[in-house]
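Hey team,

Sharing the Mitogen-activated protein kinase-binding protein 1 run so nobody has to redo it. Sequence (369 residues) first:
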Amino acid sequence: TSQATCLSVTEDFIFCGCSDGTVRAFSPVNLHFLCTLPRPHCLGADIASVVDASQLFSCRKDSRYPDTVAVTFDPTNRWLSCVYNDHSLYVWDVQELHRAGKLYSALYHSSCVWGLEVCTELGGGGEVQLPPGSFLSCSSDSTIRLWNIDRHNVFHKNILSNDLQKVLYVDNNMTNLLDMDSITVACANSEKAGSSVSETQQMDQNRVGIRTLRVSPSGKHLASGDRMGVLRIHDVESMDEILNVQAHDSEILCLEFSKPETGLQLLATASRDRLIHVLDAAREYSLVQTLDEHSSSITAVRFAANEGKVWMISCGADKSVYFRTAQQMGEGLEFTRRHHVVRKTTLYDMDVEPTRKYAAVGCQDRKIR
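Structure output:
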C-alpha cells in the first residue's frame, strides 16, 4: 500500500489504516504481521444492488477504494471502527481476526450538500413514485442520492446503509467521491508536494458538482443542474437519465417546475450566466423563452397562479426582483415584465407562501422582505 495514515494501539493488537481501503493488524509484542482486514465498498459501486454480504468482497480487480483515514478499536466488544475518505463509516467485528465481518456501515456525501428535495406526493396517475420518508440530495461530489428514513419500509434494502437507497453518479471521475482535504494533506506529505497540491486544487475547481435539483409536480421527473451549466432530467422510478443538455454557460443556481394550479407544465432554469430559460416539460423540455433582464447571478425563480394570472418571479445578486405574467401569443407562451423592484442588498432566496398572495425574499442584510 502506498501510505499508512492512522493507528489504533491496544494490548492485543495494532491496527494500521492505509490507502486504498486497506487495514492491517500487527502484534504489539513483536510487531509481527497478523492479517489484512476486509475492504469497504469500491468507489462508484451501485449500492442498491449490494443486497448480500458476499457481494461486498467481490469487486473487480481494477476497482478503486477509498483511503482509510481513522481507526479505533473497542477491546471489550472487539469491534474495529474505520472512517474512509469518501465519508463512509464501517464497524468490523474482529472476534475472530481472520474472519472479520461487517457489523455496521453508513455512506454519506463526501463534499458539501447543495440541495434537498422531499418527494412523496402523489404522481400523475395517483401512484406514489417513492415511499413515504424518501428524499433526494445533491452535492459537490457529483452525486444525487436517494434516502429513506422510514424504518418500517422495506424499499430496496441494501447491506451498506440503513437509510441510503441509491446513488446516481453523474460522471465517471471517481476522484470526486473522495474528500479533497484529505487528498491535499496526503499530497503535501509526499515528495512532490508543490505540483501535487496545485493539481489537487485545480481538480477541485474543475469538478462538476450538482448545484440544485427539483422533482416535477407529478413526481415522475427529477431535474438537476450542475456547476458547468448542464441540465439533466432523470426518471424518478427507474433513475434513468432521459435528458442531458448544456443549458447554461455557468452553474445552474435554481430550477423550478410550475405548479398544477397554473395549468402549465413548465421548467425554469436560472444560472450564474444571468439567463432564465423557460422549458416546456410537456414537449420534451423544448425551449419556450429565454429572459435576460438580470444583470448578475439569478438566485431564485418561482411560479405562482393568482387572480387568473400565471406569474413568474425571479431575484438575484443584482438586488432586483422581477415580476412577470404569462401571455398567450400567436407563436406560444411568453412572459412579459410587470414590475421591477430594486433593494439595497443582494437577494439570496425566495418563495411564494401558500395563499399565493405574497413572495418572501431572504436578503444578505439578514432580513426577510
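The CA atoms of residues 68 and 298 lie 40 Å apart.

Ping me if you want the raw files.
A.
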